[in-house]
Structures are given as C-alpha cells and as structure tokens.
Design goal:
The protein has 301 residues and is of the alpha/beta class. The chain has helices at 13-22, 34-43, 55-63, 80-98, 136-147, 168-179, 197-210, 227-238, 247-254, 270-276, 285-291; strands at residues 2-6, 26-31, 46-49, 67-70, 105-110, 152-157, 159-161, 182-185, 191-196, 216-218, 222-226, 242-245. The strands form 3 sheets. A 7-stranded parallel sheet has the order 3-2-1-4-5-6-10, with helices on both faces. Strands 7-9-11 form a 3-stranded mixed sheet.
Length: 301
Amino acid sequence: MRIFLTGATGFVGSRIIPVLLAAGHEVLGLTRSESGRHQLEWAGARPHFGTIEDARSLQEGAAQADAVIHTAFDHDFANYAANCEKDHRVISALGAALEGSDRPLIITSATVLGDQGDDEPALEAVFNANAPIPRVATENAARAVLASGVDVRIIRLPQVHDPLRQGLITFYIDHARASGFAAYIGAGADRWAAAHVTDVAKMFAAVLERGSCGETYHAVGEPGVPFRNIAEAVAAGLDVPLVSLSPEEAEDHFGWLAMFIGRNGAASNGWTKARLGWAPMGPCLIADLQAMDYGPARSAI
C-alpha cells in the first residue's frame, strides 16, 4: 500500500516510516522544506510538499494514497485551542479527499479524551466530549468524517518518550530548569500514561493492517506512572530540589501546564492489546528520564 503520512519528519512520524517500509508499504511524506525532503528521501520515503494549513496540498497527497496516517500537530501550547481547531480542519480536509472510497484515515488523538471523570484509567470505548482540553476538536472532526462514510480509525497517544523527548514532560523539564525546582501537586499521586516511541510506531502499522473502521485504540505501554516519580527523576537529572505545591500554588507556577498536571492521566490498554495483538516492549518512561541528557534545553515534541 502507498501511505500518505502527515508529520512525516516529526518525532512519531519519522519512527513510523521504517516500520511501514519494513512491512512492504510505500510512504509519501508531507514536508514543507528542502531539509524535510532530504530527511524523507534518506529514510526511503517519497516527499510531498505542502503544509497542514494548506487543504489543497493535503488532499492532493491523500488522492495519491491507499491510506492516510495523520500525525502532524502544532505543539505550540500557548495557542493550544487554535491549534486543535486547525487539526479539526486538517481532518475534515483529509476526510473529504477520501469520501466514496474504502481507504482508511488513521488520526492521532490523546488518551485523556477517554477519561470518564471518575479518576479511573481512560478507556478506548469512551469519548468524553466534555473533557477540559481543546483536543476534543480532533475527535469531533474524526467522528464527523466517520459519519460521512470514511473508514476512520483513532489512535490516542499518552506521553510518548525516548531519552530525548517525552511529550508534555519535555515542556515540564524545561519549566523545572527555568524555575530551579521540579514541582508536583500535593502527594503527586496523579498518574500519567506513557509509551515508548518505537512501540507507538508499531501501533500505527498494526492499526493500518488489523484495525477496523470506527474503532479507537490506546497506544499505551504503561497505564499510569505516578507524577511524583516523574518529578523525582527530573529533579535528579537537573540536580534541583523536589517541591510539593498546593493546587492554588500550582496554577500560578505551571501556567498552561496546569491544564494537565494534577489531573488523572492514566489510560487503559487492555482492549487495544487484545484487539490488535500489540505488545509494547520499549523502555519505561522513568528509565528514559534517567538515561537522558539534561544539558541545554531541547526542542519539545
């Protein structure tokens, strides 16, 4: 199959390419730059010039493919709501290009949208349209495209990591470095789901090959890592104090990160593993945090 991949030069997308190629697929990767073209060609993919802001370039890429995997997302959290609405437009454009066909569209979401608000792990079968994050727009778009007859499959991501990047925790590390201490809220008992990036890449291939229309999957390796454990690893890596904050102090201290820290971030993976035969094997989050270089700040996701 020929797969049109958005986010092809990104943290997750670049890891998906070798998995797809090893399975015998071709990859057409979206890029906006000459450096991206070189990166894709070096990886064995064919570049397609365009941006996620340009619906026409997206639809032209989708028109050339047997399936679409959408991993691109603008991780500027200062404009999170606007970027989630942009993701809504991207999914709508890709869906319009696939209408009337049986070509699947695999989109990327967040495990928090499966949270029922009861402090239990988020579930694949749940979509909380009232979740307190703007990423709801992503799954609203996916469900609208699904209703139009497109084969939509949703992969929800937790904190995706290796020793270089760790999802939102990368921003947390930068914040701790700047503030001079690693903070958590209360006892730090809130839990965050996590998965190694190599396992996540394999999940996309599994959903492409064995997934079904309308299903939602959790690319979760660890269902819930206590946030205090995360903060302890970061404090040790940066050689800064570990500090507990009250919820009131956290709001001012963390800024936009307060949207996530202190909230339930655990997520189930049992149904996904049974459905796909997917078995995560990569290193755990704390091991990667302990192995990383805590030198100068790195780009986030």
